[in-house]
Amino acid sequence: MGVSIGKAWRLGMLSTNLALLPNNNKRKHQHVCSQQQQKKNNNNNTISWSLVCGFMLFVLGLISLLTGHMLSDLEWYSHRLVHPRLVGNYRAPIDIWKSKLSKYYYGCSDPGRNYAPAVREQMSNGYLLIAASGGLNQQRTGITDAVVVARILNATLVVPELDHHSYWKDDSDFIDIFDVDWFISYLAKDVTIVKRVPDKMMRSMEKPPYTMRVPRKSDPDYYLDQVLPILLRRQVVQLTKFDFRLANNLDDELQKLRCRVNYHALRFTKPIQELGQTLVTRMQKMAHRFIAVHLRFEPDMLAFSGCYFGGGEKERNELGEIRKRWTTLPDLSPDGERKRGKCPLTPHEVGLMLRALGFTNDTYLYVASGEIYGGDETMQPLKDLFPNIYTKEMLAEEELKPFLPFSSRLAAVDYIVCDESDVFVTNNNGNMAKILAGRRRYMGHKRTIRPNAKKLSTLFTGRHQMDWHTFARKVKACQRGFMGEPDEMRPGRGDYHEYPSSCVCERQYVDEELDTNIDN
């Protein structure tokens, strides 16, 4: 499927040593995805910032009243107006390894002063059973929302059951992946959690637990109106297929509870943590800093996407057969899906994007992936661009053997390495990509690069009609806003686990002079 490095660029543009490609300093400040030209700052401007901000806030206030925009959006815009560092530096070169603005923000998920304590088991409205669904990270979102729903219902939560029957076919239980005792104790002030329904309660029940499936992204009122009455009557209720069954936008206290669950309470078991940290240490011994690439390029994932990746009739036939497994999937236009930015980047495209952003060919990459469609042939162009590529199988062949039968535990190991990497890159917009992006924002806005697939697809298609410098300049321009900078996050944007805006606070004061000395 993949093409060799000699064919990657017409007229031999990539056949030379890409690490030695000169920088085009005259062009590197241009933003080619926008037709607007940058205005020069006028130091003699007689209009004060306060007047400008006041006028802009007045206008935005009128717009908000007329269009129904939420106050949170207005606050975000005013925040950008009163923080020139977020505006004036927008076109300045980006440090590809670390955000210069991360020092101004930190994760904050502590409950407020009026936050009520957890209801005791004996005083709760009943027991809530949760059956999570999907792979590790999809189940992670379900577990997180299960805690919040238990809080909403004043219910005692039973440790969630994991899915054993999905595509992943992993029979691991909660206790095999997460530290269950830590999970229960950490959330003791939020929700009462038990490992099982008491035997006395089960023996006293005339009927088995009531089972129901709630609609996707149901708001708290639905649970109070539809689930709570049944819980009060039956005392034990089981919610099945529990993935994305709670609304995205909740009040701040519940959003912060989501953060406490996701970023603190869900801690992996000791064996998983130790192996993950072993891989991190081995990567750090080889390189001062490294990139982790989450590469989703499995055959079933590609077939489901409905995209075409350049493999000719062989690819069309193979992925077409796999796609027939899902009888309800609509017919999609591969070209249309790519133009809409719905197709995952190929390994070769990931490499081109990283090189264009400025990462040199001596950069070390950790690749977190499952089965790569096309195998070594698909991976070779990425290896040509970045020879120092490692996987968990390469770094810990013997230590990994006990984990091999369990896809979720393997995914947990990859999760740890990706989280600890200096830069995290993804070729897709799946659950792991979103969850790790949110966690890295919460943990200090560590550099996280997700491809602007919609605009990059046009560049990749036409890359043979431009020289390397032009291509690199356009990639840098199109990736503005997709590099994990703090100003990419605002209230109401995206899924909570990707943009945890309620759980990220701004520091009131940063010693700029001290910080500059530290950086130097």
TrEMBL record:
UniProt keyword Nucleotide-binding, yes or no: no
Which keywords, in A-to-Z order, does the entry hold? Carbohydrate metabolism, Fucose metabolism, Glycosyltransferase, Membrane, Transferase, Transmembrane, Transmembrane helix
GO terms for biological process, alphabetical: fucose metabolic process
Where does the chain cross the membrane? 47-71
Kindly list the GO molecular function terms attached to this UniProt entry: glycosyltransferase activity
InterPro entries registered for this protein in UniProt: FucosylTrfase_pln (IPR024709), GDP-Fuc_O-FucTrfase (IPR019378)
Q: Which family does it belong to?
A: Belongs to the glycosyltransferase GT106 family.
Task: Report the PANTHER family cross-referenced here.
Answer: O-FUCOSYLTRANSFERASE 16 (PTHR31818), O-FUCOSYLTRANSFERASE 29 (PTHR31818:SF3)
Supply the name of the protein.
O-fucosyltransferase family protein
